[in-house]
Amino acid sequence: MKNYLHTEIQDNILLVKLNRPEKRNAINDELILGIEEVFANIPAEIGCAIIYGEGKHFSAGLDLSSLTERDAVQGLHHSRMWHRALDRVQFGTVPVIAVLHGACVGGGLELASACHIRVAETSTFYALPEGQRGIFVGGGASVRVPKLIGLARMTDMMLTGRVYPADEGMAIGLSQYVVEEGAGLAKGIELAKKVASNAGMTNYALMHILPRIVDSGQDQGLMMESLTAAIAQDAPEAKARLREFLDGKAKKVGEA
Ligand code: 1HE
């Protein structure tokens, strides 16, 4: 794990690097278990995490060399292991920003789609080659990717092997940002600092409650929203921030 995943702390930001460039950061069991462990044990002082890849690509997805060895039951457990690990990323203690470049394909896209913000360098390309490999997604793509781009686009990606370049990927919702080649990490850190400066309850609600509201019916969703709004505004930190604005001491919208 230590070789395939490199972690570093900068102020209150956790940087997690996929470090298997010789295999294009293809994700084997050791790597996915490493991701689970890192995101299950984020130090309390961390306010935001960034995940990115060493070498020419973010990730070539599942390590295909391991696939041939599994029977159906082992395949089921393997897929559930990915679900567990990527749930740790999506529903952990801090928001996670994926900084992408080169291939973001198959399980690499599944990992990226478990993150809360995606920043893509211009070299990024997205694909779900599972269709062409004769398999199916198993790391959560069928749940997370349609939420980003819609059912029809994911179906097309898998049926036809369509590859989306960075700019088109942003246009359809695969990333929220596109930046110049080599500028991804700096952009990720800039965003992470903003994320980490939010009130804890706001980030918690965005990570843990908003996705549940989206998955629920309108009536339940509105009730969950009201409860969340009530809890958030009750916190001393929220009251202090509102007071700061009313006293003219807080930044206006759009001020740097
Ligand atoms: C790999 C993998 C891999 C590279 N598993 N070993 N993912 C895919 O179907 C994508 C397969 N990979 C590619 O299409 C290309 O490798 C890339 C476009 C990502 C990069 O191309 P390139 O020219 O930079 O690298 P390369 O020469 O193809 O690969 C370098 C080495 O990495 C080579 O090994 P080597 O020992 O010959 O040097 C490749 O075999 C190896 N490599 N990708 C294993 N994926 C939870 S379910 C998720 C299901 C999926 O993710 S399916 C999609 C899998």
From TrEMBL:
Q: Name one GO biological process term.
A: fatty acid beta-oxidation
- Give any GO molecular function from the UniProt entry: catalytic activity
Tree of life domain: Bacteria
Q: Which InterPro entries match?
A: ClpP/crotonase-like_dom_sf, Enoyl-CoA_hyd/isom_CS, Enoyl-CoA_hydra/iso, Enoyl-CoA_hydra_C
| Gene3D superfamilies given in the database record | 2-enoyl-CoA Hydratase, Chain A, domain 1, Lyase 2-enoyl-coa Hydratase, Chain A, domain 2
PANTHER family attached here? ENOYL-COA HYDRATASE, IP11341P-RELATED
Q: Which family does it belong to?
A: Belongs to the enoyl-CoA hydratase/isomerase family.
Q: What is this protein called?
A: Crotonase/enoyl-CoA hydratase family protein
Q: Which organism is it from?
A: Spirosoma endbachense
